[in-house]
Amino acid sequence: MSTPPLLPVTNQQAVQSQPPINTPAFHTFFSRLSTSIRDGLSQRRPWAELVDRSSMARPESLTDALSRIRKNLAYFKVNYVAVIQL
Fold first, then answer.
1. Position 24 in a domain
2. Count of structural domains within the chain
3. Could you list the residue range(s) of the whole structural domain that residue 77 is in?
4. Which band of pLDDT confidence, cut at 50, 70 and 90, is reported for residue 10?
């Protein structure tokens, strides 16, 4: 019988010698990411406005319905993304 293949072994010294993620590039990336998230969340609309049934009415035509959907998606896009993320 042949011998089984050897599994690679990690050298503990090599793992410990890697620097932590503490570079200026990482800080810049994280800062920009958090700023983008904050800016995006600041554009969300009030949830009560999204579910206000008094502002909902049946569209008169398919064209009117499509127009409303486009406007609604643009206006509430941040809210919809938040719901999808749940």
1. no
2. 1
3. 34-47+61-85
4. low
How far apart are alpha carbons 74 and 4 in whole angstroms? 60
Measured between alpha carbons, how far is residue 66 from residues 40, 63, 79, 81 in Å? 25, 5, 19, 20
Residue pLDDT, tens place only, 30-82 = 899 889 888 877 888 888 888 888 888 899 999 999 999 999 999 898 888 88
Q: Token digits for 62?
A: 């398919």
Q: Could you report the per-residue pLDDT of 19-28, keeping only the tens digit for each? A: 667 788 888 8
Radius of gyration of the chain (CA): 26
